[in-house]
Amino acid sequence: MRRIAVVGASAAGLSAAEALRRQGYDGAITLIGEEPEPPYDRPPLSKQVLAGEWERDRLALRTPADLAALDLDLRLGVAAKGLELGSRTVELGDGSEVPYDGLIIATGVRPRRLPGEGAHVLRTLDDALTLRERLSAGQRLVVVGAGFLGAEAAAVAWRLGAEVTVLEPAAVPLAHAVGAEGGRMLAQVHVDRGVDLRCGVTVTEVTEDGVRLAGGEEIEADEVLVAIGSLPNTEWLEGSGLTVGDGLVCDQYCEAAKNVYAAGDVARWYNPLFGTSMRIEHRTNAAEQGMAAARNLLAAEGARKPFAPVPYFWSDQYDMKIQAYGFLRGHDEVAVVEGDLAQRRFVAGYRTDDRVSGVLAVGMPPKAIRRWRQAIATGAAWRETVRTGVPAADV
Amino acid sequence: MKVELEADKCVASGQCVVAAMDVFDQDDEGIAILLTEEVGDDQVDDVREAVAVCPAAAIRLVQA
Ligand SMILES: Cc1cc2nc3c(=O)[nH]c(=O)nc-3n(C[C@H](O)[C@H](O)[C@H](O)COP(=O)(O)OP(=O)(O)OC[C@H]3O[C@@H](n4cnc5c(N)ncnc54)[C@H](O)[C@@H]3O)c2cc1C
Ligand code: SF4
Q1: How confident is the model over A112-123, as pLDDT tens digits?
Q2: Cα dist. B30→A157, A305, A311, B27, B38 in Å?
Q3: Nearest CA to ligand 1 atom 35
Q4: SS3 sequence of A289-349
Q5: Which ligand is nearest to the CA of A94?
Q6: Does pTM surpass 0.90?
Q7: Are strands A140-144 and A163-168 parallel, antiparallel or unpaired?
Q8: Above 0.85 for ipTM, yes or no?
Q9: DSSP A34-55
Q10: H or E element that contains A20
């Protein structure tokens, strides 16, 4: 293998490129990214950047020297437009072509939008800087969607003194992700601060003065942020023959076709640890999966390793630090095993069938949940774990 | 090699501790602490892994 192309120059793509070099690969690496910026970090966008605490220079994932040391053929500000598996070429928006022996696809996701114009979304550095300029004390901000992203942005806007309204279609925010009890607790945190959180409300359109709801009612706002989930960037793969279905479909090795791998938010792969296919939009997964894809691309046929991680997620809202390990979706039961929901200091375990499938912790020392990671990784039995309150497995 | 940590970037994910337990620990708030600044040859690979998985790009490995 002498030519490897990596499409998508963010967390997953960069991690893949670095892993290729760490594995000793010394051939060409072309790293293609649609954004003009060198790889930067997204989680601070809805936190420190929106709050005005960090400037753009703090977001770079690597120093220029570290990037240079990777010896990349870096193509920034140009998107991949097509893929020919037969001739093994990636076609770029500027008309050029990148031939490859191995390909890693890490094109991430983009925000879902609503009909109408003038609303903000929050995915790129530009998005964050634009929204931050508009946020100030007394401004009326409507956030559509009370998921983690919308909640973080609402928290920052509240801190900046904005009048914040959050509109959420579900009856309980985040119930599908963390369960009803946890979702209610996370919702109450907004309400306690005076954020106007309205659940069971469907927004149909962004208007000139705010948003319109399904019943026709209008809610006025100075700024609107739409945070209603995301869509995988797979359109450029249309006609390539690769299987797309809410993400680029891969096997347990993150392979989508011979010598074509995917990583990060865009990848839907089979995670053997949970026995299901999943697509994870978490920062640490992007890095880990980029590494795994790179290793498997270079590995000999029999030496590849399934990518079977315990997903990890964190979120900062107001003064709360939220952390979760595992795959919480579709769980059968939640049990608070330590602390107290009402105090916003707790550890909650998640059961799927009869094993521990996840853990959610709020305001707890990280050591309290690190051992849960191991319990999830080994598929520890639920009953024993909850009975003792402490996973049997050691760190 | 020397390891550098920008503690104010750290988001308390603990990934570095998982990758290199002899080099990193976390304080009660979860913020990473360096157990050592000098990294021996046998630890370099683990620390590289920590640099790669740290979600905050808070860790760097530099030539001493
Ligand atoms: C505001 C915000 C806050 C977040 N906070 C957290 C958090 O607190 N905790 C957490 O765990 N996760 C968080 N995340 C999620 C985390 O940032 C993502 O999981 C991670 O960025 C995924 O990395 P990626 O490289 O897979 O995709 P992306 O970061 O989306 O990168 C994909 C890149 O590919 C480029 N691209 C797309 N199409 C093409 C094309 N055709 N050709 C070339 N390039 C293309 C894009 O421009 C982009 O730069 C947050 C995300 C956002 C947006
Ligand atoms: S991996 Fe990075 S963010 Fe996580 S605890 Fe270590 S230094 Fe902090």
Answers
A1: 999 999 999 999
A2: 25, 31, 18, 5, 22
A3: A8
A4: HHHHHHHHHHCCHHHCCCCCCCCEEEEEECCEEEEEEECCCCCCEEEEEEEECCCCEEEEE
A5: 1
A6: yes
A7: parallel
A8: yes
A9: SSSSPSB-SGGGGTTTTTTSS-
A10: helix A11-22
